[in-house]
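Try this one yourself first.
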């Protein structure tokens, strides 16, 4: 994003630290899942993760958050960065958004990369339901990557059938988990 400072919501969010964001994108670069992809950033806050993906070649990014301050900050950041043609901001509960995706997956527009950076106080069951929605048939593309950021004190997410974890790393108080759509042979599909 060219070193630009993003607008952050006045309260109610926990921005991803620069160190964690750099580590996430280093891994995603290595996995080759950023160029020409469809990205969903859930609990987006300022939109930093999704906007970083857009700046690294994502074709389309959707930012979803229910907090008014977060939505206003994300919209301001999209405008400032000139990304309105490829980034959409959705104001509403993540759970409602993912339930709609699972019920009616977008035809021909499966997701290649999903970020989940929920509030640390989101219940394990709440996170598990969002992950189940993402694992529904037709939501994720083969080779997609799901990135979950949680408190290092929280348990590993309860991965539903359809999602297979393939790595995690702790950075101080933050733990980052990676998962992908499950395949019959257990191999990572080509992006």
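Now uncover the answer:
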């Amino acid at each position: 994003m060219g070193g630009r400072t993003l607008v952050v919501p006045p309260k109610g969010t926990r921005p991803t630290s620069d160190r964690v964001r750099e580590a996430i994108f280093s891994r995603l670069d290595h996995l080759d899942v950023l160029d020409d992809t469809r990205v969903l950033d859930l609990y987006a806050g300022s939109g930093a993760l999704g906007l970083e993906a857009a700046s690294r070649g994502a074709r389309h990014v959707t930012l979803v958050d229910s907090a008014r301050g977060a939505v206003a900050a994300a919209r301001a950041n999209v405008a400032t960065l000139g990304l309105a043609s490829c980034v959409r901001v959705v104001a509403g509960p993540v759970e409602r958004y993912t339930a709609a995706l699972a019920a009616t997956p977008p035809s021909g527009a499966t997701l290649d990369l999903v970020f989940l950076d929920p509030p640390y106080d989101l219940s394990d069951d709440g996170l598990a339901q969002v992950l189940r929605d993402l694992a529904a048939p037709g939501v994720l593309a083969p080779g997609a990557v799901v990135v979950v950021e949680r408190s290092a004190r929280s348990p590993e997410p309860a991965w539903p059938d359809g999602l297979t974890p393939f790595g995690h790393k702790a950075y101080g108080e933050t733990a980052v988990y990676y998962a992908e759509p499950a395949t019959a042979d257990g191999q990572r599909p080509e992006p």
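Discussion: The longest strand covers residues 140-151. The chain has one domain: 18-181.
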